[in-house]
Target: Testis-specific serine/threonine-protein kinase 6-like isoform X1
Amino acid sequence: MTTETGFFCTSQPNKHLLRDRACRRVRLSKFLPKRIINIFKRIYKYISTGCRKKAESFENCSYTFRPCQKQRSARKVRRVMHQHSGNGGRSRHESAEESSRRARQEQRREQDQERHRLRLLQHRNPQPRTQPQQPYVLRAVPHGRPPPSPPPECLLQVERPRVIELPDDGALSTALADHGYRVGSTVGHGSYSKVRVGIRSRPDGTVLRLACKVIDKRRVAGGGSSYVTKFLPRELQLLCAVRHPHVIRTHQIYATPSTVHVFMDYCENGDLLSHLQRNKGMPRWQAHAFFKQLCEAVDYLHRNDIAHRDIKCENVLLESMELVKLTDFGFARTCVDDRGRQLLSQTYCGSLSYAAPEVLQGLPYEPKPYDVWALGVILYVMLADTMPFHQSDRQRIVAKQMAKTFYTPKKYVAREAMHLISTILEPNVARRITIGEVKSHNWVKHRYPNDTG
Model:
């Protein structure tokens, strides 16, 4: 039996301990197989050998273990006795290096105690943190998968475009040349207009590619007189007022007695319908991102009491494969009068496939729920790769809409997405959800693997 001050170890176990181990071995042999018992023997042998080696190391070096209370007291007494012995405040057996090391340890301990005391005081009496004022930077809020950041002038330019009235076409050519605008070839046609490529040369030497919407008043004077007198002034007024990352931006408007030139952003990837037909559908994460961006654009319009009334895939332009913009405000209007009262619309607007049942029935309707209905149709087209109502007859479409009988999807649509579509395409206007409820739906708030916004 080996003992050491401050440590106790048995290198030779006594007979009582051997007897207990033998009894345990006998009892274990009755229930455990022999292989398991051999494993326990190996473990016991390894542990006992390690303990014996550890005891030998403690015998050889007395400073490898923590001293007991009696040894610590003895050392403290010797340190006190030799403080005034004239050896620089150190004991007889203590060298200069050990003394300096001990002094540094004591100094470090005092610093830690002081630091801990200050931390406690700061925790009890917290001081208000003063952070430097960060400059405000206007940024586009990402929706779904983050789109590439728009040009800085699209967000930082605060001045609104205005309608420049000109007397004739000669004055129009002069004004376009003075402001650096040029009109190129035709790239598209509309009901009352055509779209041409526009180029603007800036004073700093850069060139900006735009789209120029040319409206010929003489062409629509016969069958579209109501458009020129009623809808066109509304469109120009709203184009000068709206500003949103997912709404097409208007740069300048020139009006003559015969034509109107509207210069706006150019989206070279075409519209949403052409993209779906060209690629035969789109992945779910992309449809999810595009729908969130459209919801943000419509929510911006509705919060400003503006209704689009012609939302469809042809009026959704792709600036890139990750960014869409809403365009064509030909049928847009305000939803309140001068006194702030809600107005009902009676004009049949939009396309047959995107029209709500109250519009197809010829009833006075609220324009905001009509926009929400059109969003539901676009969502169904992007997810199911088909229109929800395939009939060309108005009465049959209304019957399908009232019964909520959708056309069979060509590909799988998730259950949450179908629930959202069912709540949007609700024939009862009072039960149809608003754009705010659409944005708060679980499917809209869901993050797909490709979404990082």
In short: Confidence is low (pLDDT under 50) at residues 1-11, 58-66, 129-158. The radius of gyration is 41 Å.
